[in-house]
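Subject: complex prediction, re-run

Hi both,

The earlier run crashed halfway through, so I resubmitted it with identical inputs.
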Amino acid sequence: NAGVTQTPKFRVLKTGQSMTLLCAQDMNHEYMYWYRQDPGMGLRLIHYSVGEGTTAKGEVPDGYNVSRLKKQNFLLGLESAAPSQTSVYFCASRSGGEQFFGPGTRLTVL
Amino acid sequence: KNEVEQSPQNLTAQEGEFITINCSYSVGISALHWLQQHPGGGIVSLFMLSSGKKKHGRLIATINIQEKHSSLHITASHPRDSAVYICAVPPYSGGGADGLTFGKGTHLIIQP
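This time it finished cleanly. Structure:
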């Protein structure tokens, strides 16, 4: 099992550009999450999904959209990137309470 | 919404020392998580506990539900234990289907 994978690992965007981060899990988990991690702050929840076709807002959802068309994939989109979205993004999936994290995507918005 | 406080924020110790990291939270929960983040950035789950104590190798986690407090201990610390240790709880009382609320982490350095 690959566990939780994220694509890409690194990305540099210019302000106003758009992009999609892909999270994939092969553990058949229902719950999936997108977090961002910024220096001096704990991880913060952006959006989450409790099953295929469902999404919900987390603590910091503004500027992001998500989709869960297939159970194994959870996509995070930035429609018009801003420098404030420079961060490390982690995806996670959940089984029985324990969360399994992807390796992270380091995004820089210039 | 749950608030999580960890202490200390930074800790430097000598190899072999006994390490304690503390976590306090504000809202009653069903389970608390301890996570480890290595310098490369990856995050792994160490413990999920709802009562008492759990042990895995040299790591021990305890929780006091009444006092809303948990501790992570490392016995016979080693330089490879150097990492950021993060405490996390559900944002509201309940199982945490709606994600976790995280502490800011404790940056641990073990010197040889």
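Chain B touches chain A through 25 residues (CB under 8 Å).

- K.
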